Amino acid sequence: MFRAMTHPSDRAGAGSAPAEGAKTTARMILSRTVPDASSKPHKAKWQKAKWWVLKNLMAASNRHIGALDLPHLIMSDMTLPRRLNLTGANLRKSEFNRVTMTAVLLCQSDLSHANLTSCNMRWAKLRHATLYRARLDKVLLRRADLQHADLNQAQLNHAVLDFAKLHNANFKLTSFYRAKLRHVDLSDAYLRYANLRNADLRTTHFRGTCLRNANLSGAHISPGGMCNMNFQGAIIEGDLKLDLSAGWSQKNALDNYLNPSNYAKGGGVLQAIDSISPVYQPLKITLMRQIMVSLQQTDLSLATVAPALLDKLSSAPYYDELDIARWSQEIGSRFISIFDTKIMRRQQEEVLRVILDTFSRYPESMVIHSAAFIQTIAQAIYARRASATVQQAKTLYARYLTHRRIAPYALKEEFGDRAKHAPNWQDKSAANYVFLAGKRSAYALLLSQEGLESLLGSDHSAADCRHYYLYRDGVPVNRQEYCWETLRQERFPLFQSGYLRRLSEKHIIEVLARLNLSAATQQLFVETTKQAYSNIKLVSPEKQLLMHGLWANRVYRFDTDGNCTLDEGFYARLMQLALLVDRSPAERAQVTFCLAALFAKCASNSLFGTEDDSPYALRSLACAFLDRACTLLSRIAHAARDFTVWKNALLGRQGEATCASVVASEMLGYGTTHFPEVLKQVMPVEWR
């Protein structure tokens, strides 16, 4: 304890006052206002006295009287020691003028109505603190921790909060005018009625953040900051300043910012723009146009994000703009060519409309990209589309049948309705489709909707359908005159994709059968191979423990150094599968690598993981397969180095961030570059 002080010049003497007396006297000293006009020696004396009292009071508080009760505290031009413990202190209506409070512990403290203007509070700990109506203008809160803090009606104008932690904080009616919030996590924060005018929100994370009635006029944002934003109910009376100076050249920037599957809860930049109220329609169009112009200036391929772009740009109000509509059709034209060799996923109605419009505008592309065109027509007519879309598709197909290369096949006896020489759309077994092998090939097929579904593997039959008619230069070819497997690979690559689709599903089922999963869980995995995103997640503690319990020491093992490897007995059972039997060590390495990529994909947020968590057992299994692949390919230095980084990332070791989505994406890229045919036999087409 320390002696009660009544004046700064007093010194400690014999005896000690009770804690309550010391506490009362301390409040008198600490609440004393030192006039600015005072002499420097006088100010220094008072500052020294206040610091001496605070230091001793803290010592007494920590030992005897609990959290400090110091409302109306006044301190000016002082530097508090780093990590000074003021946890739970009552500092209501206190004045801190130009006080340096670096890393001070203020968790659960009450700073309601306090004035902290221009204070340096870098690294300060303010978790669960109450700052109701606190004045924090021009305060430096860089890297401060304000998680779960209550800043209702606080003033943070011109404040710097770069890298601060604001998760789950309450900012209702808080003012951030011209504040800097770069690299800040505002996930699940409550910003209703907050003033964010002209605030710097570049690289700020807004997942699950409430922005209703928040004023964002003139705010600075970037693609990285918009990915999870929902502007629903936000007020944007002025422009939003979208910063695209970084371009799209950063690693995976296009996919990360524009592909909605990477942001299950937010939807990416395009969805964020679309969430802005229709009241601000000119702003929505302006922002979309900025994205368009920026992408037009890049040389990067838009293939992976074309569906997302078409999904938004093909709808009102963007498609009503001539330049945006024209660019959408250009994207559609490039997008179409992908499906000459790739199976078309089910498209949104608006996207399908853009594709049909593109074929209508460029009729020669119907023949050049016959495979893509037939898939589009099949989706439009048989996938429960709006009547207008169905009619548009039928009209366009009738036009296709008049082309000089197509018309002769429409006269064949096997085609459609034999009596009318026209398609019979009521009969799915009728050979309505004229399918050209390619612009330089003499081969063509007549096939039905049932035959198309079989060859694409969408009916999940075990073998290729034989209900088609093959022609060469318009002349029928007997089955004895060709080998379908060879013809499929060389002339009809789309159907080779269908074959590999069935093959990968067969291989996945065989591998899953070795993992001791319940029938329901195994069926969940199989069903998920048919879609790009799963609404079912496996991140709850119960599900993770159950899966880890099934696989630990049976499928994978951890050694004393924390390395995850495949169980030898499990690997021996895998070696009996058609996928691995009779393969060389190098080929087995490629297969095990692809299996590692497959289970890393399963752990990603697009499938069984979330943005916050991913199934540990799936990451461990991916790491174990990766370890086996690395062992078999240990002589390839580049691969071994990448594999080590990926293994550490999957397990969160050696300072690597754990992100299954990023690892899966990089592994898919590696497999596509080095052994694409093996990858196609393992990785479902919907996941590539």
From TrEMBL:
Pfam families in alphabetical order: Pentapeptide (PF00805), SopA (PF13981), SopA_C (PF13979)
Subcellular location: Host cell; Secreted
The entry's keywords: Repeat, Secreted, Transferase, Ubl conjugation, Ubl conjugation pathway, Virulence
Region feature (Disordered): 1-22
Residue ranges annotated for the E3 ubiquitin-protein ligase SopA-like catalytic domain, each copy included: 522-688
GO biological process: protein ubiquitination
EC number: 2.3.2.26
Cited Gene3D superfamilies: E3 ubiquitin-protein ligase SopA, effector protein (NleL), HECT-like ubiquitin ligase, Putative secreted effector protein
GO MF annotation, one: ubiquitin protein ligase activity
Superkingdom of source: Bacteria
E3 ubiquitin ligase SopA-like central domain ranges (all copies): 283-412
Full protein name: E3 ubiquitin-protein ligase SopA
